[in-house]
Amino acid sequence: MLTDLPNLLTLSRIGAIPVLVALVAMRHPGTDLAACLVFSAAAITDWLDGHLARARRQQSDLGRMLDPIADKLLVGATLMVLAGEGRLTGGTLFPAIVIMAREILVSGLREYLAGIRIGLPVTKLAKWKTGFQMGALGILLAGDASARLLHIGFVPITAIGGAMLWVAAVLTLLTGWDYLTAGWRHASRAMGTER
Known about the structure:
By secondary structure, the protein is mostly helical. The chain has helices at 5-25, 29-55, 61-84, 93-115, 124-149, 157-194. The chain is globular. 33% of the residues are buried.
């Protein structure tokens, strides 16, 4: 049901996107820090909604559909606003492209496999990928100016976020390959039975 707490948390992730984009567009260290906090809270709901759905036995087809959509919208919008504001440059733009391409590939693959009634479970490596990805994006949203705003000295926030984004991109390639090969195996079997 749409009003179950897990589904409301998932919807809050989608609702956080315009707030996040507006904060980044303001181009101020304080709003960058606020964007980081909004993104971090939204990222936590990614874990919390699934945990609550299982604990309360409120898993639903609606939740299974909305959860990956909310995740991909949040990550995609964050990557685009960072790139659009010139905060993903050179070395950090490439892993962002890899992450976006993988998200589209896996979404299409899952949609096809759902049509032949096959699901792709989330692997432990994919959970690590998500952790690095969410951490990197939160850090990149905060940016170097936030560290100075908080008077914590010069901490290379952007460099740390960029390094984490590269780790996420490598994990993205590995998990994308795993999903692609598993999907291909299932699709080949399905095509073989149709003949």
